[in-house]
Structures are given as C-alpha cells and as structure tokens.
Amino acid sequence: MKRPIALIAAAISLTALPALAEDVSTSDVYACKEIAADADRLACYDAAVGRLKAAEDAGEVKTFTRKEVEDVKRDSFGFAIPSLPKLAFGGKDENGKAKADDLKEVTFVIRSVKKEKDLVRRDRDRVRVTLENGQVWVQTDDRNIRVKGSPKEARIFQASLGSYKMKLDGGLAFRVERVK
To answer: Domain locations in the chain?
Structure first.
C-alpha cells in the first residue's frame, strides 16, 4: 500500500471548535519521536494521533495529497489566490518559510475558440478561448491572431508583470487574461 504524501491544513470554520484547532499539530506527533522510553513514546503517539483524528472527524483538519494540491493549482492558474502558495510541497527556504513550487505554465485541451469584437476598439477582433476544464481566457493585446481550423491545445504561460500569454497549437504567443 502506497503512502500518499500528505499535507495537513487546518480549515478553521465558524462552526469549528477553536480549542481543538489550537491543540492539533503534526509537530505534536513528530515530537513524540524524541521520547526515549517505549511506553511513554507510544502513549505520546496515541494521544497526538487521537487528537489529530478527532480534529479530522470534526472537520478542523483536512489531508490533501500532492496531486490534489497540484490539481487545484492547475485549475486556478491565471487567478490570484494569495493563500494558495501556503499549500506548497517545496520545503522551506533559508528563513524557514514554505517555498512555493509555483506553476509557471499549463497546457489544456481547447473546447472552443471564438473571435469577437473588442468592446473598446471596435475596429479590432479579439480571441476568446474556452478550455475543456471550463476556464475562459480572452486576448488583451492588439495582435491580429489568425485562428486556423480548430486548435486542439492551448499553452498558457506567465509573462512579465503578472500577465499571461497563450499559444494555440504552438502558434504565435499573444497576451491573455483569465475571465472565468
């Protein structure tokens, strides 16, 4: 049986028991390792795991696999979610803070590509790309993008100053923003 790499994230809710959330930590479980006497160490583990299980049953603690976190990062690519880097598996930096293993680029299957009139510059068309996962991206630059046939794949990557660019089937890159 494989052990999933897990991330424990405290999910504080309005209905949660605050005292329970404060008492639970994976560091409590890890601290038990330092106890020399077998019986005391086992008692420590039992107590720490019991608190962790009770918190999980109460909805205070949730376990996520690395794949689940990566799926959320992939699905949220293009949106600013400040708390998302806290769900990183990148270890810690020299200051003890969690390293963000930021996603810089994604590739998705395209559901549809449409050209539509730019509402600001009526003399220009812009490209609207809807992806299979429901994301919608809209062209923001003035490039005249020619869409040939039905593109199959969109590669989206980070550009300068927090912007994004997209290539359809490996074509020319154009600036986009995520609208859905």
So the answer is: 6-87, 105-178
User: Integer distance in angstroms from the first to the last C-alpha of the chain?
Assistant: 39
Give the closest residue to 127 by CA, choosing from 176, 178, 65. 176
Cα–Cα distance for residue pair 145/135, rounded to 1 Å? 20
What tokens appear for 176 in the block?
A: 């986009």
Q: What's the CA gap between 169 and 157, in Å, rounded?
A: 14
Please state the φ and ψ torsions of residue 166, each to the nearest 5 degrees.
-135, 145
> Sign of the C-alpha dihedral, residues 132, 135, 138, 140?
negative
Q: Round the CA-based radius of gyration of the chain to a whole number and report it.
A: 23
Rounded to two decimals, what is the model's pTM? 0.59
pLDDT tens sequence across 108-131: 999 999 888 766 666 678 889 999
Residue type, 171: G
Tokens of 14: 């309005």
43-64, pLDDT tens digit by residue? 999 999 998 888 888 888 887 7
What is the mean pLDDT of the segment spanning 126-137? 92
Q: What is the pLDDT of residues 146-156, one digit of tens each?
A: 887 888 999 99
